Amino acid sequence: MKIMSNEQLVVSYRDALKSEQDKEWAKILKDEISRRGLKPKKTR
């Protein structure tokens, strides 16, 4: 996996969730998000 900023990581995760083919990639990104202590959900 290439090095991403926190913002890029969260955006990539959201895009992977929307795509049906990227379920495995979404799991990898989610693991990295949890390691960094980020919250991928939008807060309003």
Question: How would you explain this protein's 3D organization?
Answer:
It is a single chain. With 44 residues, this protein is mainly α. Helix content is 61%, strand content 0%. The protein contains two helices and no strands. It has helices spanning 6-18, 23-36. The mean pLDDT is 86.
Write the layout of secondary structure elements.
Elements lengths: L5 H13 L4 H14 L8
Helix pairs in contact: 1-2
Q: Top keywords for this entry?
A:
44 residues, mainly alpha
Brief overview, please?
The protein is 61% helix and 0% strand.
The description of the largest β-sheet is:
none
Q: What's the end-to-end separation, in Å?
A: 30 Å
- Figure out the total of helices: 2
Class derived from helix and strand content = mainly alpha
Beta strands, count: 0
Described by the principal axes of the CA atoms, the overall outline is globular
Q: Per DSSP, what share of the residues sits in E-state strands of 2 or more residues?
A: under 5%
- Percentage of helical residues? 55-70%
Order of helices and strands: HH
Rg for CA atoms: 10 Å
What is the averaged pLDDT score?
A: 86
Low-confidence stretches: none
